[in-house]
Amino acid sequence: MKLNCIIILLFVSQSWLAPVSAKTIELPGISENIASAIRSGNSKLLTTYFNSTIEITLPGKEGTFSKVQAEMVMKDFFSKYPPASFDINQKGSSSGGSQFIIGTYKSNNKVYKTYLLLKPVDGQLLIQQLQFEGN
C-alpha cells in the first residue's frame, strides 16, 4: 500500500513539474533579438517573431493582421517613424507562459511607449500583440 502511494505521488509530482519546465522559454535571447529588429527598423526580422495573426496598435492604425500584412504595416511605420533608439524598460512572464516586454521607442522628436505580448505556440514564443503609443 505504501509503495503504491509513493508511486502515485511520484507520478503526480512529475506531471506537475513537466508543464512548468515546458513553459520555460528563454526570454533574454528572444527579447534582445526583437529589440534589435525594432532598433534597426527591420520589419522582416521582426516578423519572424510574429504569430500567424497579430494585433497591432500604431498611431493612426489598429487591427488584427496576418503575418504578411503585419510586415507591411510595420515597414510603413518604420519608414514614417525611423528608429533613433529602442530601450527595454521591463519584461516579465505570467504563470500561463505568456511573456511581455515594455519599452521606449524614439523616432526623431517623438517618443512611443511600446508593449509586446508573447505567447507560447508550439514550443516557441511568438508576438501576439504589439503596441506603439505616442506620448
Brief summary of the model shown:
The protein is of the alpha+beta class and 135 residues long. The chain has helices at residues 2-23, 27-40, 43-47, 67-80; strands at 50-58, 61-66, 85-93, 99-107, 110-121, 124-134.
Keyword list:
135 residues, alpha+beta, 41% helix, globular, disordered N terminus
Protein model, in words:
- The protein is an alpha+beta fold.
- It has a single domain (24-134), classed as Nuclear Transport Factor 2, Chain: A (Roll).
- The protein contains four helices and six strands.
- The chain has helices spanning 2-23, 27-40, 43-47, 67-80; strands spanning 50-58, 61-66, 85-93, 99-107, 110-121, 124-134.
- It has a six-stranded mixed β-sheet.
- The longest helix has 22 residues, at 2-23.
- Mean pLDDT is 84; it is low at 1-27.
Q: Kindly identify the CATH topology.
A: Nuclear Transport Factor 2, Chain: A
Global Rg: 19 Å
Relative helix content: 40-55%
Unreliably modeled segments: 1-27
Strand order of the largest sheet: 2-1-6-5-4-3
Which CATH first-tier class would you pick? Answer: Alpha Beta
Taken together, the total number of domains comes to 1
Strand fraction equals 35-45%
Mean pLDDT: 84
